[in-house]
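Blinded run. Sample ID left blank on purpose so nobody reads anything into the name before looking at the predicted structure. Input follows.
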Amino acid sequence: MKEYDIIVVGAGPGGSFAAKTAAENGYNTCLLEKENVSVNGRYKACGGAIAWELVEEIDYPEEKISRIIESLELHHTDGEVFSKKGKGAVIWRNVFDKFLTDMAIDSGAKLKEQEPLISVKKLKNHYQVTTKNYTYLTKYLIAADGVTSFTLKTLKWPYFSSKDLILTVTQEMKTTKSKIKQDLGEDTVHLFFGIKDLIAVGYAWLFPKAENITVGWGNQINLIKNSREEFKKFTSLPFVAKSLINSEMKVFQPHLIPVGLRLQLYNDNVFAVGDAGGIVDPISGKGIPYAMMSGKFAIDTINTCEKKDRLDKLGITYEKTLDRNFLKVLKLKREFRDRIFQNDESLKKFLSLWENHRSSEIVVRKLM
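Blinded prediction complete.
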């Protein structure tokens, strides 16, 4: 039975960044992943758009970027289009996640891939973590295994309300660079909105990569009647249908994302990070940077409280750190989201403001 100081479950952005931070701080760290995380082995249903600030922060190699973008087109189904400028990148998540996992390994974390969890048990001062291959002991457990986290389900943590879950459907469509340039633009991603005629609470998207278009659709799960038919309604829009002519479908995959926090983010030496904690922007669905930051902050919390001999303050310190950096704003956005999607008039007012303001600024400054 191998013993670690910290076991991180899930090698996505939150888990890998947590493992990297833990190893850098001298903790004997294990990163458990149920799948293979090789460059071609772990497809993730995700648009894959990230801000350029994140590219620079982690020094992400430009050759791993599928497309550099300069603008975001916000389409309403009534034909009105809003344009938002801003540099970013579109990436394949298997490549991006592998890059972060390699950073964790290079920092000293031990990666155990293709080891799905079987059970997690609380012993006196440790957790016993059993996978299909081995049994491990750890003092701290980082749950970074997504919205349906098996770790937290096993520990009987409360799940999300249906109003805080978005069901997404993703298609990967193979096409050509020239077709993308002609129909979507060389450096633009596209979002589609329309409460009455498209999606009640959510949006759809076309994110071009090098020679692929990631086609996505997401709606609040309790409002969906037939996801395939509602997705087809999106792909039948004239602009979308024209963009997808002669393309070949390579992937069709549903996926859940949270748009509201779990009722708890910490309990008894267990931390929820990223999607497992619902730490996602409720308006845009952006989750990658928040997953990475929450993973780092979980380890920073352990390190700080151990040094101060205040392990009784782990939960308070973690949530205060999250609040101070971004969680207060995400909570405000969750409340604000209901206002945005109450009708198309409110939605279009938000989209017009979003052209020139960050969504956080709109919410905090109460611009609408």
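Unblinding after everyone has recorded impressions. The first strand starts at residue 2 and ends at 9.
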